[in-house]
Amino acid sequence: MNELNLGYNSFKELPSTLLMNLNNLEHLWADHCELEKLGTALFSQSESIKDLYLNDNMLSELEDGVFGGLTSLTVINLGYNKIESLSRTPDENTELTQIYINDNELTTLHVR
Fold first, then answer.
1. pTM
2. Residue 89: pLDDT band with limits 50, 70, 90
3. Which residue of 82, 85, 94, 100 is 20 to 30 Å from 35, comparing CA positions?
4. How far apart are CA 50 and CA 52, in angstroms?
């Protein structure tokens, strides 16, 4: 499977084992899900994900290292959340070309 669409569900948090055996997953939609938190282990083995859509949730904080395993990521959409501070982005990512952070509650931004 290379696409997984979890959009428009009522998850507060995604299980840390959700993506564990999805080695070919390239596109993940978890938008409009009421997500409040992303665990640091969620993307730890997600090297193949290229597009990640986390927009329109309730995310207010992103833990350090949460995007650590996303080495192929090209697009991340974090728009329409409640993020106040963005101090960590997938900055170790040489493939990243687009970051959407519109319509949040940002007061601090440290993007490399």
1. 0.92
2. low
3. 94
4. 7
